[in-house]
Hints:
Layout: H1 3-8, E1 11-14, H2 18-27, E2 32-35, H3 37-65, H4 81-87, H5 101-113, H6 115-132, H7 137-154, H8 160-170
Parallel strand pairs: 1-2
Amino acid sequence: MEKSIRRRVKEVTCDLSPSMMLIAAEVFYNAHVVNDRFHVQQVYNEAVDEIRIDIRRQLIAEENNRNKSEPPVTYSNGETMRQILARSKHTLMMSQNKWTDIQRHRVNILFKYYPILKAAYSLAMELRKIFNAKISPTKAMGRMNKWYEKVMALGNNNFRSVIKTFKNGSSRKHGA
Length: 176
């Protein structure tokens, strides 16, 4: 591709590969190199799922130490918390308006006992809303900054990869 054409490129969207971002910054030296929304959302959803998995592991460890003669607690939907956690993985990646009544009941139980999961899920949906909003890039960046601050305020180690993704994406502007 001719240098004059490459110079006119204003923005390049990449996956989260650092090598691709470096190449894009080299080839399109006047462009902003940004992470694409799908991969950013994927990293965030993985962080939410890591919280779910951590809770489930902790629960399994507690169950291994409890008296086996006592049956596990079942909740209003007839499931144990272990079952609720196992069966909520995909539900936590979906928008609430797509949940079935069974999924909604399950997640309401989960959120009642694990507010960190509710907060993380809410931020995932907020991120999706920002990406879907028909707003100016400046307004979107303002919302993303506020969202990022909320993620930082959660103080959960599972979000290190999300924070790293934002730092990597913001340091790749104009070939830097």
